[in-house]
Amino acid sequence: MPEAMLTKCRPISSLLAVACARTRLALTSAAIHLALTFACHGALASVADDIRIEATRPNQDAEGYALPLISHWTTGNHALSRGWAPARQLELIDQGHYLLPWFQLPGRTTSDYPQTAAEFTEYYEESIKRAAVLRLPLVFIASQWEAGLSKDPYLRLPAELNPNVVTADGIVLPKVSPFGPVQPWIEIGLATTATSWMKQIAEWYPDPPLVIFLSNNEHAKLMWKDAELDRRYVAANGTGTSKSLKKDLVSKGWIERYRALQAGMRSGLASPAWRSASIFIGYDAAGPPHFGRWAEWDSYALNTSEFIDPSPLVWDGGSPSFYTDNWRESTDFTMYCPQIEFMNLVFMNASARLVNPRFWYEMSVWDGHMPDDPATDKRGYYESLGQSYSPARYGGMVRFGMWLTRPRAVREFRDWVYPREDGNDYFMSLVAAVDEVHNTPLLRDWWQRGTLVVNPAGMHPYQVQIPPEYQSVNRWFLLDSDANPPKPWAPSTRLRVYALAMSRVRDHGAEWLVYAHAPTGPVADADVKLPGYGVLRIMVPTEGAFYQVGRGEVRRVMPWSTELQPRAPLGVRAD
After folding, report:
1. Which of 144, 179, 143 is nearest to 160 (CA)?
2. Low-confidence residues of the chain: pLDDT under 70
3. Structural domain span for residue 403
4. Do 68 and 139 reside in the same domain of the chain?
């Protein structure tokens, strides 16, 4: 029985009594087996209850941050990746894991999935009905709902009725515009959800507590710097307009149109229960995490005088990419890494919740593994440097991002045609990172109530063209360590130890939780400077470890391996 299940099944003694009372059995092996059956049935119900409670917990809940859930982008509807399908997800929930179940959004055309009633029944029916019994939240994943606007019949509409970019000479480009008519957005949204497939799903599960519609959000759209490419913008504002005006009008245009799209989708749903339970989330609809990285960063951002990013007004939530992509130089062991880049999201997420208190922040994660493309595969790149990339190393990096930003969900990406077996061990390392927050009371308490510690001794390395209003916000949370080289750092500077901390004050005084991981190999005696306390000497494994600090003590909370043998004792010295 999985350890998480055993945790949920305790205390067994009371359940033994219940089982024996119900069956009038003596305390025999048969009675014990029956009691365990009762216990584990309760465990499964408890895990499902916990998933529902955390998925629906408000951002401003009195108990603190909602505990994280684990989810995925690969929906298992492709023949090669069936192992990711909902039936397998429910097996993992049965085993005591905290999954947020995900499904492919049924298509609206005969070329989309599913194409036949048999496909639909096989993929959806049993899993949706099981989710209904357990009262689980649902996620429906699609590419881009608005993509149909850039195809016929919309692409052939007259210029004045066309939702796409219309150039000065009347050419219609297959990319949506924030200056076109709004009505087509409502129509395409309605067509996305008002399908017989979705009506059937609603009949099987009439009262879900939460339904997330997740868009890949990568359809071609007009960028703010190209606003004058659309003649409707020029007609209203002329040419040579300022960057600030373009950003402001493009932002407002997207807010209106994407909210119209979502209103159409909501109106197409089968019942008031589904309409009230549904939220709409976009990939990379948060940030920009690349804030300040190079001189032209804001060419790829929609920051205005009103907000750092319009996403909280465009969407109900965002899923930014905590990726070591295969197409850029970002790694998990250099200054140019998602661990440092996502430090920008700490203040951005706080700003998002001010604008939209219900904004659902989750993080999408990926290690850049592309087995069919050895020229760009990130694991292959590490191997060329003499490094190995294990599930433990992946889990260590993702834990850092989790504890840095505390997402509602961690959503892994894998290319949709790869079998689950190719990435299962890596995914399960993320499942473990989520499970431990739920199943370890100390970590759960810190997740809910801890305050992220700012490192006042340094600055975020992304400092190019920072707008005045953001120059004093806290963006640096990496703790100093003697295992890392002296500053300044270049993007390619290698870092051995990534450490962060949370703090709180109790009756006995201040205490801290420190998390540290060492992606390129364990560090047996790293000195880590903890602001307000001192310099800790700790062991840092590849997959990471937590340390409870306070009252003059440093206690390791959770090591996951015995790979480290300390060359020096754990300890602390004063600053």
Report:
1. 179
2. 1-45, 559-575
3. 64-451
4. yes
Measured distance CA(218)–CA(285) in Å, rounded: 10
- Helices and strands, counts by H and E, the chain: 18, 20
| The pLDDT value given to residue 16 | 34
Q: What torsion, rounded to 10 degrees, do the Cα atoms 407, 413, 416, 422 define?
A: -120
The pLDDT value recorded for residue 18 is 32
User: Which amino acid, residue 83?
Assistant: G
Distance CA 510, CA 528 (A): 18
The token pair that represents 462 in the structure block: 């992304």
* CATH for 129: 3.20.20
Q: Are 231 and 165 in contact (CB under 8 A)?
A: no
Instruction: Give tens-digit pLDDT for 65-116.
Output: 999 999 999 999 988 888 899 999 999 999 999 999 999 999 987 778 999 9
Output the pLDDT for position 362: 98
List 317's β-bridge partners, or say none. Answer: 281, 360
Angle ∠(273,279,283) on CA atoms, nearest 5: 155
Q: How many CB atoms within 10 Å of residue 370?
A: 20
User: Which 3 state secondary structure label does DSSP give 179?
Assistant: coil
**How far apart, in Å, do the first and last CA atoms of the chain sit?**
47
Say how many domains are in the chain.
3
> Is residue 192 located within the same domain as residue 216?
yes
Span 437-480, pLDDT tens digits: 999 999 999 999 999 999 999 999 999 999 999 999 999 999 99
Query: pTM of the entire structure?
Result: 0.90
DSSP-derived pairing of the beta strands 317-319 and 360-361: parallel
Instruction: For residue 39, give every residue at least 6 positions away whose Cβ sits within 8 Å of its Cβ, in sequence order, or none.
Output: 9, 12, 15
DSSP string, 450-506: -EEPP-TT---S--TT--GGGTTS----PPPBTTSPPSP--TT-B-S-EEEEEEEEE
